[in-house]
Amino acid sequence: MVEDGVFRQLTALDVYRQAQTLFVYCSTEEEVGTLQLLEDALCAGKRVCVPLCTAVRGVMEARAIGALSELSPGRFGIPEPSASAPAIPPEEIELCIAPCLAADLSGRRLGYGGGYYDRFLAQTPAEAVVLCPERCLTDRLPAGPHDRACGIVVTERRVHIAK
Predict the structure, then answer these.
(1) DSSP 133
(2) pTM higher than 0.85 for the full model?
(3) How buried is residue 29: exposed, middle or buried, by Cβ count under 10 Å (0-12/13-18/19+)?
């Protein structure tokens, strides 16, 4: 299973093991699942933040959760924390885990076109990792001026350092 392989590859990385504050997407059916990752990070005592889409189109905030039960379907049907969940400043995040529909070896990711992750990644100095099924990894994707690449690409088969 893709999720199990990606989980094993990611959690073996020093950057994951050493990070105390993580920003992790809540997956949809089209993305690499993050349920196991969220559970692992919470059980390890890490501060886990997930996206909360704001009223401003294309903008999301990092909100801390203490349990998966704090999530419920948000505006796009994606699990989100409540608006009362603690906001975590982007500069406090040590590792961002980003989704994709496809990614390339330079760490560029193809998402849904809303620019949410590109805007968020531009605000944080955190290492960024994109989780991508091997079958969706390509040599090169088109990129625009606002696209933010991730430094690490993790598939179920390998870890690719994109820097």
Answers:
(1) -
(2) yes
(3) exposed
